[in-house]
Amino acid sequence: MNRFLAVLALLLAHNGLAAGDVGHSAALVLSGPPAAGVDGLRIASLRNKLAEKYRLLDDEKKRALLEGTASQRSRADSVRDRLSKAAAKLRSFDMPQVRFALAEAQIEAAKLPPSAEGRKLVAEVALRQAALAIVEHDERLADRCMQFALSADPTLTLDSAREPPPLIALQEHIRAQRAARPSAQLRVISEPAGSEIAVENATGNAPLTLRAAVGPVVVWATHADREATNVRFEVRDGANELAISLPIQDANAALEPLLATLRQVTASERAEAANRLAIALRVDLVVLASPDLTQLEIYRLPRFAAKPQPKPKVVAALAGLTGASALALIVTGSVALAEKDRYQASCSTVCNDSVYRSGRSLAISTDVLIGVSAALAITTVVLAVVLPKKVRRVALTPAGVAGAF
Questions:
Q1: Residue range 337-388, pLDDT digits in tens
Q2: 132, 94 in Cβ contact below 8 A?
Q3: Pairing mode of beta strands 55-56, 25-30
């Protein structure tokens, strides 16, 4: 661990942490699930080092998501867990616990979207409630639950090798009954307005008016900025109206697609994805670490971009030499032209060889200075562009720190 901390310090020192960044808010993000050997202590060590420069995000729930230590179990998994618990309690004939587990499953399932998986799970919960009602000889409840199951997933079919005959018979009876039922008007409004509504095979945006079969139905509502929801509703003869208020989306749920994008995009697209995540997190910078913590990339929002670094002294010195060389060639060139004029004037009588030799030497010196000045100018420009560039990525290697410039 001591060696890890020492190399970590080198990593941060070589990663171009500009003095202007000090005090800015930042979030540490792992580009994937932590690698083998990377535990919470090592991530905390990196976080503590970064905290010496930045004000790090302190929301534990968000931090766990960004650093890959949050539980990866989905809401669908939660529904399955409760269904498994209900099945286990049913085998021991603990009916109160079966009802409780199914009630919990229904609450969790009510937050699922109308995806293929969501429909199957919502239908499965209602199906298990129908099976329990059959065992408890509550025919009316069994009928209602089976109707909810078929409304949630109209394609629902039962495996005769696994399901009890009374449950299969009930499904066949309710399916035939639903096909013969009359329809009635159902108007669905939502908060926020414009939510996408689904009732069996009918879809549209709220406020939505449609025809639905009389009896129990499942109505789904989704919106980009809210959590999905589905409700059980009884459609009666005549006009019906249902108002659905979608819950405010959990902060982590809103971050998940942005985080997934950052982890999946190519290197050329990563800056834009990091900026979007930074805006959602309300931080100035995103520090992206590789799963094994051997590479760091720092992405700053444009308004917090590091200030240009001062030009190195060597560039200033070369610029001075370039100017001096240019001045010298101007002087020698001017004198050479003057000597040329003197020589041509002397040739009206007798050409002056000493003036010729002097002019020729000055002309040669001028040509040399032209080449030297051009070389110095090119070198100065190249160094001025290349030298100030910061290290964009640094890697920890067995030998120490290796940087890509």
A1: 776 777 676 776 667 667 667 767 767 877 776 777 777 778 777 666 655 4
A2: no
A3: parallel
Output the furthest CA–CA distance in the chain (Å, rounded).
138
Architecture field, domain 183-246: Sandwich (2.60)
Q: What's the pLDDT tens digit per position in 90-117?
A: 999 999 999 999 999 999 999 999 999 9
Q: Cα(251)–Cα(249) distance, rounded to whole angstroms?
A: 6
Burial 271-308 (b: 16+ CB within 10 A, else e): bebbbebbebbebbbbbbbbbbbbbbbbbbeeebeeee
CA distances from 253 to 2, 46, 108, 258 (A): 37, 25, 15, 10
Among 312, 363, 364, CA closest to 337: 363
CB atoms within 10 A of CB 4: 15
d(CA 353, CA 25): 77
* pTM score above 0.70: no
Among 3.40.120, 2.40.50, 3.40.350, 3.30.310, name the CATH number for the domain at 2-70+269-304: 3.40.120
Place of tokens 């009602």: 133
